[in-house]
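Q: Here's a chain of 209 amino acids. Please give me its 3D structure as tokens.
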Amino acid sequence: MDKNYIDMTNENCRRLNAASERFGSPLEEKELGSQKIYEGRIIDLRVDDVELPDGARSKREYVVHPGGAAVLPVDDEGFAYLVEQFRYPYREATLEIPAGKIEAGEDPLVTAARELEEETGLRAKLLTPLGVIYPTPGYTNEKLYICFAKGLEYVGEHPDQNEFLHVVRMPLHMAYEKIVRNEIKDGKTCYAIMRYVLLERGEDPVEAQ
């Protein structure tokens, strides 16, 4: 068999990661020039000239985003708190974990705590970082920092102006089932809930290391 693939065993993964950190990725595209063609309130749009790994040149259009933080709140009874809001680009209402834009120089956990209180009225005694995800790497540099919230206390919500949403409290297992049935489609929400379920089952591969 022609082996034009990378064998991703644990040992090979470690070697590849070490090589990438030392020498850079062999797939890297080098920026030759960059132009901002739109500046918005939250996002910018840029078009870059790049050099490809084989020396050819191309263009890359992408959205510049300051990044965001998202938080999965779970209470002592095992209920998760999600927000239902209308997402205009999809023309439909979605169920999501609370999330928002990181302000300049702000710690993502501070962002997560603020958005949790603004959107659900909850304040958490403990925020646990879960990691970073790239929601749409094909056309934006946005990074989303995900965390869990425990030890919840209701203090009163105060959503942003022009932000309309419903807070939905449901058993975590029901939220998980909605993901499996493709009723919850939001990527950050799927990641956070499925990761939490793995942790609760003691099956999380990161925790097991």
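Q: Can you summarize the key feature?
A: The chain has two domains: 28-64, 68-208.
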